[in-house]
Automatic annotation (TrEMBL):
UniProt domain comment: PH domain binds phospholipids including phosphatidic acid, phosphatidylinositol 3-phosphate, phosphatidylinositol 3,5-bisphosphate (PIP2) and phosphatidylinositol 3,4,5-trisphosphate (PIP3). May mediate protein binding to PIP2 or PIP3 containing membranes. The BAR domain mediates homodimerization, it can neither bind membrane nor impart curvature, but instead requires the neighboring PH domain to achieve these functions.
Record-linked InterPro entries: ACAP1/2/3-like (IPR045258), AH/BAR_dom_sf (IPR027267), BAR_dom (IPR004148), PH-like_dom_sf (IPR011993), PH_domain (IPR001849)
Database matches in CDD domains: PH_ACAP
Name of the coding gene: Acap3
Protein name (Swiss-Prot/TrEMBL): Arf-GAP with coiled-coil, ANK repeat and PH domain-containing protein
Membrane topology of this protein: Peripheral membrane protein
Source organism per UniProt: Aegithalos caudatus (Long-tailed tit)
Recorded GO CC terms: endosome membrane
Function: GTPase-activating protein for the ADP ribosylation factor family.
Gene3D superfamilies: Arfaptin homology (AH) domain/BAR domain, Pleckstrin-homology domain (PH domain)/Phosphotyrosine-binding domain (PTB)
Listed Pfam families: BAR_3, PH
Amino acid sequence: QINVLQAKKKFEILDAMLSFMHAQFTFFQQGYSLLHELDPYMKKLATELDQLVIDSAVEKREMEHKHALIQQRRLSLCPFFQDFSYDDSKVEFNVDAPNGVVMEGYLFKRASNAFKTWNRRWFSIQNSQLVYQKKLKDVLTVVVEDLRLCTVKPCEDIERRFCFEVVSPTKSCMLQADSEKLRQAWIQAVQASIASAYRESPDSCYLE
């Protein structure tokens, strides 16, 4: 009787395994049928994707070519653009300016959100601070409260040209100038402001 029971148990296990295999077969067969119906659509999408890649590359080359032509035309029309491009910033900086503004002008600022968007803002260095405005008459937004606690460095390993970064103990700010001359001028202005702030209040700096 025990042998009969064991044989019956083996039969039930085999029956369950066979049912499972049939279910698996049906599942994959249905999946194959659905994907087989989508095969022409996927091939069509792949063809369109290849064309989009080609069109994007062509458009990028055309834009680069147009940009180069515009730059050449600008240089030929006015020699001043050769050094300072079409920027409205003051290339000169003055740490002893009567109004306290060491340097000011337009810069692109990379946002700190997930999208890392770039926005053009009017920046200025004043009172040992780096600030900006969306418009000239807007309230100042302080980016760096105390330049003495900061460092500034050019950034080359980035998707945009003429970028530099102002780093403070709590955050960093990525900025983009309109030319290499302007980038160097802004970096030098920040460094000069840092040095000037140390000279003006050495005792407080040592305490900090």
